[in-house]
Amino acid sequence: MEILLLNGPNLNLLGRREPGIYGNRSFEDYFPELTAAFPDFTLTHFQSNHEGQLIDKLHEVGFSYHGVVLNAGGYTHTSVALADAVAAINTPVVEVHLSNLAAREDFRQKSLLGRHCAGSISGFGLESYRLALHWFQQQRPKRVGFRV
Predict the structure, then answer these.
(1) pTM to 2 decimal places
(2) What is the DSSP string of 21-37?
(3) Domain range holding 95?
(4) Under DSSP, is residue 5 helix (H, G, I), strand (E, B) or coil?
(5) Average pLDDT over all residues of the chain
(6) 147 carries a ligand binding annotation
């Protein structure tokens, strides 16, 4: 299965940015663990601080990949355009967040993306990605572009 792990703004700073909230490991350090844990998956990752690049990547893979694990960062709460892109594609998307959004500021507790996603996982740090991949593993799609 081909799965894209798509990271939004400021996630390139993981391990350095507010480690009390986001942890002290970079995504690049964690990614090899995911590829080793899911040998039957073809995992790729992409990060951008630019909304349009995230949308373009969703359009690129959204009709051919088996899944997307999306950590949209701050765009989760602000981007109608990114929510529309998730709604427009056939590939299922699982929304992930490192921190527990319910325990954060009021503005972080609303996701514009969640209603278009197969599910949302938050609060487990980098392990949120692994949990999302376990969900895809359980789906065992019979065709590319299944939609839940």
Answers:
(1) 0.88
(2) HH-S--HHHHHHHHHHH
(3) 1-27+63-72+83-143
(4) strand
(5) 89
(6) no
**Mean pLDDT within 119-138:** 95
What mean pLDDT comes out for the span 86-105?
A: 86
User: For residue 39, what are its two tokens?
Assistant: 């040998």
Catalytic annotation, residues: 22, 97
Confidence of residue 122 (pLDDT cuts 50, 70, 90): very high
Structure tokens at 123: 């609060």
Supply 7's token pair. Answer: 């990271």
> According to the model, what pLDDT value does residue 24 have?
76
Q: Position 59: which residue type?
A: H
The CATH code of the domain that includes 117 is: 3.40.50.9100
Distance CA 28, CA 41 (A): 17
113 is in an annotated binding site: no
Residue 50 located in a structural domain? no
DSSP 8-state class, residue 106: G
71 annotated ligand-binding residue: yes
Annotated binding-site residue? 10: no
Residues, the chain? 148
